[in-house]
Amino acid sequence: MSGHSKWHNIQGRKNAQDAKRGKIFQKISRDLYQAAKAGDPDPENNPQLRLVMEKARAANMPKDNVQRAIDKASGVGGAKFDKASGVGGAKFEEITYEGYGPGGTAIMVSALTDNKNRTAAAIRSAFTHHGGTLGTSGSVSYMFDRKGYIVILRDGLDTDEDTMLMDALDAGADDLKTNDDEYEIFTDPKSLAEVRDALQKKGYDLDTAEVRLFPENTTEVPEAKISQYTGLIDELEDNDDVQDVYEAATLPEEE
Fold first, then answer.
1. Superfamily per CATH, domain 93-136+219-250
2. pLDDT tens by residue, 215-235
3. 201: helix, strand or coil
4. Which of these, 102, 126, 141, 148, has the minimum number of CB atoms within 10 Å of its CB?
């Protein structure tokens, strides 16, 4: 019985890992689809597509899955919906939802969906189940700044902070933040592509280059509502249609 229980636990963990990996692959597939659809399906001529492909490689996403998502965007092999990757056939729309989590914390949810009614119902349900409320357009977006965001990993990079700052500013960036693992570069959203391309021409490998939302200020989640709050964020991030969740909140520091 104990052997069976041990196998069952191992199998359960494996199934959970496989499910998590599947969700990551599905979201990357949609990013690939969007990048290829918005530009050239040839990564040599599409820097954003190259970046997403690098993200796919880092996640050990099978090459067949990557190519299938790109082919769907370019219409190669027909346009039938592919359940495995979640792309093709239907037209996807980018939609942003705004709401308040437990304790009045502001939350923005970026989704990519082929069914607005399904996604809206799921997002509303998540907020309701965890003590939050889904707001109207503009209800919390004013609390966030939209910025171009580029990340360059420092591991193996022989560039000091001063050099990185000068290169980023020369490329047209607005600001640089440094931590032990990476350089974070911030730009005007309209300048993101220009800065991205300039840094790549200087020989930098970019880990991330995208437009993101950053909170102007944050609200601390009340201790009594931490479980509700983390449950809400987990449910939102687990939704297949959700691409990003932006929070204007902080959790209390453990004593």
1. YebC, transcriptional regulation domain (3.30.70.980)
2. 999 999 999 999 999 999 999
3. helix
4. 141
